[in-house]
């Protein structure tokens, strides 16, 4: 990676524009003041490509009065995907030289053949964060505007329709230890271009924006112009919709987080939902809560069809759904497991000695100890065991009941309503090949009982 960092460093010149304040500058000043985006002590990095949006952002930041203006630094990335890219970097560099703003740039020399859009974004933000760490900057500022917001909402609607996706682009969020600010979301692209024209500021035009190679471009060129003709107030409507949706999501998230405190338990690599704790919710509301959990904890967006499938399982008996990236939902009695699908437990057995701890599966310490008959977890046997084994359940396992009859272990699991995901991993203890204890559900019932033992399991 060829990198050019700190090429130009100047102190900020407070005399940006000497002419009368522009209407767009006045609006921007009010937006910044109302949202308290910056403090004068903030050191912020402005992402500038040279296009109309980002160049207008930089000009508007420079136009802020001293009590609102942070210390500004600029970063640009030359992706070298178009012949004009180096000229765009020169345009930004020249602007920064003219108005005495520190400038940083780098080049992307190894573009991938697949997934270029995501790779470019990752490279861009990695460079921004490197500059921020190097210069001790606190905030990154980007030029997402109202047209981007509309396109994003339409894309999310087309791809999933998920309630959790409809909050659109937020005006600020955390970025590691720093934060990301987007102060132009109430400005349209046309508004920003008109502003640059009034200020007689040049900006670059990316010719690929006029092609239909991406969904965003197709929406921008074919759909949004039609919507704007149908509704002249579309920009304000989009802003209202997103802001209200974000507020609604905050309220719902707060409620769902309260539910999680009493009904969501970590289990293996996933979570267990205790639905006895949320009986006040309808199955449809429970499904929405599950959608939120997948969205928040697994970054998976569930479709409307999948929500209906979840609701059907919640209304009925046991059931299972498979999702992308090996995630599953499985309902068993009053519990639901959410998370990665579990692998079958290896059929291994461990030989034990009385009072000698064993580390089973490299995780659980298991000890068989002699016990008093009155101990709560004690079980008795007729003969002193010669062979003691610890293992997991097997399909042919049978238990001997107090009346001498036998019962399949699988039937015992059902009687105790032991969830499916717990059955294969529970421990079975045998004395001389006879099951005498099963974790949580069985202790030997055969008479007479001359010796008593208990099982201790710990980390």
From TrEMBL:
Domain of life: Bacteria
GO aspect biological process, one term: tRNA modification
SUPFAM superfamilies in the record: Adenine nucleotide alpha hydrolases-like (SSF52402), PheT/TilS domain (SSF56037)
Enzyme type, top EC level: ligase
Intracellular or extracellular location(s): Cytoplasm
Keyword tags: ATP-binding, Cytoplasm, Ligase, Nucleotide-binding, tRNA processing
Catalysed reactions, semicolon-separated: cytidine(34) in tRNA(Ile2) + L-lysine + ATP = lysidine(34) in tRNA(Ile2) + AMP + diphosphate + H(+)
Domain Lysidine-tRNA(Ile) synthetase C-terminal: 388-455
Cited Pfam families: ATP_bind_3, TilS_C
Enzyme Commission designation: 6.3.4.19
Domain notes from UniProt: The N-terminal region contains the highly conserved SGGXDS motif, predicted to be a P-loop motif involved in ATP binding.
Family in the record: Belongs to the tRNA(Ile)-lysidine synthase family.
Protein name, as recorded: tRNA(Ile)-lysidine synthase
């Amino acid at each position: 990676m060829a990198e050019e960092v700190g090429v130009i460093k100047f102190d900020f010149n407070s005399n940006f524009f000497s002419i009368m304040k522009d209407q767009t500058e006045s609006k921007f000043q009010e937006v910044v003041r109302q949202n308290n985006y910056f403090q004068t002590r903030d050191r912020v990095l402005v992402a500038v490509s040279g296009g109309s949006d980002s160049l207008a952002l930089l000009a508007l930041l420079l136009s802020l009065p001293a009590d609102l203006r942070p210390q500004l630094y600029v970063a640009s990335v030359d992706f070298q995907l178009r012949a004009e890219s180096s000229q765009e970097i020169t345009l930004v560099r020249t602007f920064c030289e003219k108005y005495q703003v520190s400038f940083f740039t780098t080049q992307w020399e190894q573009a991938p053949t697949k997934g270029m859009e995501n790779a470019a974004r990752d490279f861009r933000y990695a460079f921004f964060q490197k500059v921020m760490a190097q210069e001790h900057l606190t905030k990154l500022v980007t030029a997402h505007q109202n047209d981007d917001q509309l396109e994003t909402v339409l894309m999310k609607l087309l791809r999933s329709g998920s309630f959790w996706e409809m909050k659109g682009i937020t005006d600020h969020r955390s970025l590691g230890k720093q934060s990301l600010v987007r102060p132009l979301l109430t400005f349209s692209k046309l508004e920003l271009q008109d502003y640059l024209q009034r200020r007689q500021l040049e900006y670059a035009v990316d010719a690929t924006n006029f092609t239909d190679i991406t969904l965003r471009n197709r929406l921008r060129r074919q759909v949004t112009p039609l919507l704007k003709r149908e509704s002249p107030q579309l920009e304000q409507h989009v802003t209202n919709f997103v802001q209200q949706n974000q507020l609604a999501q905050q309220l719902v998230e707060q409620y769902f987080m309260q539910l999680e405190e009493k009904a969501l338990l970590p289990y293996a690599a996933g979570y267990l939902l205790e639905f006895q704790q949320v009986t006040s919710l309808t199955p449809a509301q429970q499904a929405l809560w599950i959608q939120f959990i997948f969205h928040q904890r697994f970054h998976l967006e569930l479709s409307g069809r999948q929500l209906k499938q979840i609701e059907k399982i919640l209304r009925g008996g046991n059931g299972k759904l498979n999702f992308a990236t090996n995630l599953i939902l499985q309902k068993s009695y009053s519990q639901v497991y959410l998370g990665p699908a579990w692998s079958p437990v290896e059929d291994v057995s461990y030989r034990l000695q009385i009072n000698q701890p064993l580390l089973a599966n490299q995780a659980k310490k298991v000890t068989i100890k002699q016990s008093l008959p009155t101990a709560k977890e004690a079980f008795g046997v007729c003969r002193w065991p010669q062979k003691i084994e610890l293992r997991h359940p097997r399909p042919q396992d049978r238990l001997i009941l107090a009346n001498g009859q036998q019962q399949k272990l699988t039937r015992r699991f059902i009687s105790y309503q032991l969830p499916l995901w717990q059955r294969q991993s529970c421990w079975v203890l045998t004395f001389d090949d006879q099951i005498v204890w099963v974790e949580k559900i069985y202790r030997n019932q055969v008479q007479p009982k001359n010796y008593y033992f208990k099982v201790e399991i710990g980390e």
